[in-house]
Amino acid sequence: METQGLHRTGPYTWEVPATGGMLVPGRIYADATLVEALGRDGGLSQVTNVAHLPGILCCSLAMPDIHFGYGFPIGGVTAFDAEEGVVSPGGVGYDINCGVRLVATDLELADIRDKVKPLVDQLFRDVPSGVGSSGAIDKLSRSETKKLLVDGAGWAVKQGYGSRADLEHTEDGGALPGADPDRVSERAYARGQDQVGTLGSGNHFLELQVVEEVFDREAAAAFGLHEGQITLMIHCGSRGFGYQVCEDYLGTMAEASRRYGIDLPDRQLVCAPVTSDEGRSYLAAMACAANYAWANRQMIMHLAEKALLHALRIAPKDLGLRLVYDVAHNIAKLETHDVDGRPVKACVHRKGATRAFGPGRAEVPADYREIGQPVLIPGDMGTASFVCKGSAEALAQTFGSTCHGAGRVLSRSAALKRARGRSIAEELAQQGIVVRSQGQKTLGEEMPEAYKDVERVVGVMDGAGISPKVVRLRPLGVVKG
Amino acid sequence: MTENRERWGPERRASAYAELEHPSDLFLEIHGRDPQELLENALFAFYDEVSEMDGFEPRRELTLEAGGAQLDDALRALLSEALFYFDTEGFVAVGGTVTLDGPDVLKAATSAAAPWRATARLRGDNADRERHTLLHEVKAVTYHRLAVSRVEDGWTATVLLDL
After folding, report:
1. Closest chain A CA to residue B22
2. A102: helix, strand or coil
3. Where are the domains of chain B?
4. Which domains are seen in chain A, by residue range?
5. B28, closest residue in chain A (CA to CA)
6. Contact pairs from chain A to chain B, CB under 8 Å
7. What predicted TM-score, i.e. pTM, was given to this entire model?
């Protein structure tokens, strides 16, 4: 079967053959329905553009939630040889280490069924959200900020926001190595100085959920999840700090691309060799932003815990809050993968893609290592989110990566047009979902119809054996920025 | 030259800019009778998209300076300056003027060899979330489909704000 120049290579895989300047083919994970939408927004052409970049390994990969992004598609995974390949800020995105954190509780649905509204109201009051949200803590001195940039979530724990156990359940222990605060501009410090512990705006959210269905009892038990249990999901990133790091290094990389004679099919793919001064500098600054994001989510978890304790008037031991896992879905990392039967050190770019390491990998927390890492995939605010698990198949096929969410299907303006004359909050309330938002337009822009069917997206990666489903989480209450 | 004290309002929207379809970000098409007005309207579009300008008063002034080898680079740089002060101080303009430095503005706009500078003198206020409504958090002003061109009735530009 062929569509839009794609050859179907399996029930869930499609290939773009390497032609012209493409160094490798493109491989897209989708079913027959999702693949039809691929060509509409230009994301598919970005898959082929990325395949031109030097040192790319295997193929230019796209997950089923692919949509058009800055240079690289969102939902894209690209691995470059760490010795001969490149690193590109466009392959990570502006919101460095945008990611998801899932927190389990000892509460059952029956415990809070009639209290969802006051709980959401309290979360909305206590966790700063919305455009320009700030002030979760006092402004940090420069020296303290530098410590945060190096230690990430560990810095937040040292300040009393959470416990050491949280770090065990955070990707990379909540701090990417190699962070160098001197590689960060004054503007990045200025944009990030007052935003630690804030949710921000757009598609970022804080969500109270219930475990609605368990697909894999063994994995669910290992992750500490069971049907009827209340969970909390946090989705946000590195705020203005990360945006500015990306902005700064796009300029640096534009010059570097010329200097190193890298032939670019699109100037948004600016990059530099991983081993170059510019490449190393970007990775050091990007690590700072990644660590900022982990500190941010760590602090938000703490603020949310305080809000829940206050609203429910219970003790911490009765709430039983514990971190299931925290994943990054916009990041570049140096990892070792088997390529054609030999171990290769690669710079893996995941932009709108989640790491999905399977059993046995040392990077997976010890208590999850027999199962594979938890993979957290948020859906839209009216449907569901999923916990999946990493797999050996992911390591074999996708450099240990999978999708990151539903992916937009409607533009913001198209969503607003559809929302005109409707109350999205009221519609969600009729489904039993309480929603609070700072932004007037946010609910319309983020309405469930604006996103692809998350069940279908997750189903593709489950069917392909990349990230098998573990549990489905149903939203009860949502705080949007 | 007399200073333009006009207050920006929604009535300016139709002639200043339009939002084009984009799957996830803000893709704007900006118009102006001349390069100065094009940049002025670009700033208006930015503040109109990030805030409800009606609620702001012209309580303080802010001068933005930016340059570029071509007009599109300078437009992006000027909007990036506006974004920086919006993000760090919450500054929202409700009026202002743009001047272009250069011996011949029209030639500079189309010549790769003629770098030039834009200065925006803006009036507005810092956002107070108790009193003001903010609409969008812009991550960056991007190079994606960034373009400036001369058209029959003036100038037009496209710029994408990453959300």
Report:
1. A411
2. strand
3. 10-162
4. 2-480 (3.90.1860.10)
5. A413
6. 84
7. 0.94
